[in-house]
Amino acid sequence: MAEKKEIIPPQYDVNAKWDACLDVTVERFGYSSLGGAFVGLLLFRRPLSRWACVAFGAGIGIGSAYTQCSQLFGASPAKQPSPKFSESPDSHQGHG
After folding, report:
1. What is the rounded CA–CA span in Å between residue 54 and residue 34?
2. How far apart are CA 48 and CA 56, in angstroms?
3. 46 vs 86: CA distance, rounded Å
4. What number of CA atoms fall less than 13 Å from residue 66's CA on the CB side?
5. In Å, what is the CA distance from 96 to each residue of 34, 89, 93?
């Protein structure tokens, strides 16, 4: 007997979005941590400074992945209302 498979539109396929999100997170975390380790080895002598550089790189990677994942799921990470500018009647009159 043949199984009937439902075809889910890409915008509603949550499993594919989570897979892509996890992939992006692991990739960016790893690459940015390695980049931070490389910069730490080049610039710093103390182990604490090197680990701080690795942690900074990892934070950049996680933040970048968070932004990408929130765009995948259709929301902005920090959605703030845009300022409303109103035209005042005084702005159209001349000063002279």
Report:
1. 7
2. 12
3. 55
4. 8
5. 63, 16, 9
Cα dihedral value 39, 42, 45, 47, nearest 10: 40
Fill in the amino acid letter for 24: V
Question: Cα–Cα distance between 44 and 54 in angstroms, integer?
Answer: 11
Our measurement of the distance from residue 1's CA atom to the centroid of its chain's CA atoms, rounded to an integer in Å, reads 45
Helix residue ranges per DSSP H, 1-96 = 14-43, 47-72
pLDDT, tens digit, 9 for 90 and up, residues 34-58: 999 999 999 999 999 999 999 999 9
Q: Model-level pTM?
A: 0.65
Nearest-CA neighbor of 17 among 82, 78, 68?
68
CB distance 65 to 24 below 8 Å: yes
**Which of 58, 20, 25, 14 is CA-nearest to residue 39?**
58
